Amino acid sequence: MFDLGSVQAALRESGLDGWLLYDFRGNNPLARRILDLEGRKPGTRRFFYLVPAEGTPTKLVHRIESGALDHLPGEKRVYLAWQELEDSVRGLVDGRKRLAMEYSPRNANPYISRVDAGTIELIRASGVEIVPSGDLIQQFEAVWDDDQWAMHQEAAAICRAAYDVAFGLIAERVRRDGSLKETEVQRAILDHFKAHGATTDGPPIVGVGPHSGDPHYETTPETDAPIREGDFVLVDLWARMDKPRAVYADYTRVGFVGTEVPEKYENLFGIVVRARDAGLSLILEAFADGRPLTGGEVDDATRRVIQQAGFGEWFTHRTGHNIGQDDHGNGAHLDNLETRDGRRLIPRTCFSIEPGIYLPEFGVRTEIDVYIDARGGVHVTGGEPQDRVLPILA
Fold first, then answer.
1. Which end of the chain has fewer CB atoms at under 10 Å, N or C?
2. pLDDT tens for residues 306-340?
């Protein structure tokens, strides 16, 4: 529910005159979530909603959709012609110096850059400085309450148990039949989720051999490969409880179909474990010291370990992503590779740390989830992080 008092307090703390939320045909899902519009059919006309740091909000809506924001507090202004729209926008922002919008300079962070360039030009023409709303979005869209934290822990336990199901099935079928398909492991994981009241937005990644070297591998009827003794296997799975407002848990583990893991797998996996732990250590130190920390800084610290080991070119994605009601949420990502994410890691948010090295013949990844509680305590979820490749037949 939209909490005007909390939003205005955050604006004052940030030194902003207001937050200007804008949408056209659903092109700003972040604004729609903040304004409790998610799940409602988007309108066909533009609207603006100005939340000032002090005072009463103002709605600007089209005449044929004049009730679009009636559930929100504030004064309503109605326009019809485009000339009225532009005049009304100027009146809306008149006297404001710094306003937050879903904008990122040079589109450095496309996850929050939802307002089109023309609208930005219109606002700037009134002499307003536009500030990225990324940290505000985090505070009012990515922050969890106690119920969501509890549901995450429930999902984390189910996900952790799913690895026992997956690797146990591989061991059983390889011993009995000599092999099984990637899709059979996928199905066992999905059945496990359903049996325990969890759901997911897509099937897990089960990649054997070269398929484990593709970070976003998807099994198809044409690529569905057998898993046999002597194979390396990567399993990436994610789920949330099948309940309203539930949030995801997301992990990756790896195993070798044998009783002893060859050195080449252990050595490479050891590098990503050290990288993961370097990122986690930085987070622990920063929150213990009360020092602000951005997602990009954690990406740099993690990536540096892999670069120094000589595998930098094979770490082909960001270190981690925010986790929320969507598996890839709208809070800060651990990213200074694909985007320049300068958003701070803040209390009551969750994110993954998942460095990987992806060679043509096989790839390794370790993935943990980290939750920052209200007091700045750092929690690693999903059981003990994997530190060695699992010998599946041992």
1. N
2. 999 999 999 999 999 999 999 999 999 999 999 99
Residue 148 DSSP class: H
Segment (H or E) for 29? helix 29-34
User: Which pLDDT does position 219 carry in this prediction?
Assistant: 86
Q: Which residues of 100-139 are buried (b: 16+ CB within 10 A; e: fewer)?
A: bbbbbeeeebebbbbbeeebbebbeebebebbbbbbbbbb
Summarised one tens digit per residue, pLDDT across range 105-139 is: 999 999 899 999 999 999 999 999 999 999 999 99
3-state helix, strand, coil in the chain (%, to 5): 35, 25, 40
- Identify the CA nearest to 216 among candidates 202, 200, 196, 199: 202
Q: Which 3 state secondary structure label does DSSP give 56?
A: coil
Q: Which residue from 26, 39, 49, 12 is spatially nearest to 136, judged by alpha carbons?
A: 12
With 0.85 as the threshold, say if the pTM is over it. yes
Contact 320, 218 (CB under 8 A): no
Structure tokens at 273: 């474990």
Report CA dihedral (119, 121, 123, 126) to the nearest 10 degrees: -150
Write the DSSP string, 131-146: EE-HHHHIIIII---H
CB within 8 Å of 348: residues ≥ 6 apart: 143, 144, 145, 149, 372, 373, 374
- H or E stretch at 76: strand 75-79
| 3-state SS string for 256-324 | ECCCCCCHHHHHHHHHHHHHHHHHHHHHHHHHHHCCCCEHHHHHHHHHHHHHHCCCHHHCCCCCECEEC
Considering only CA atoms, which of 327, 337, 147, 340 is closest in space to residue 252? 327
Residue 70 contacts residue 102 (beta carbons within 8 Å) = no
Query: If you average pLDDT over residues 212-225, what whole number do you get?
Result: 93
Beta bridge partners of 237: 251
> CA–CA separation, 103 vs 116, rounded Å?
8
Half-sphere exposure for 250 (CA within 13 Å, toward CB): 25
- pLDDT-derived band at 38, boundaries 50, 70, 90: confident
pLDDT tens across 9-34, in order?
999 999 999 999 999 999 999 999 99
What SS3 state is found at 185?
Answer: helix
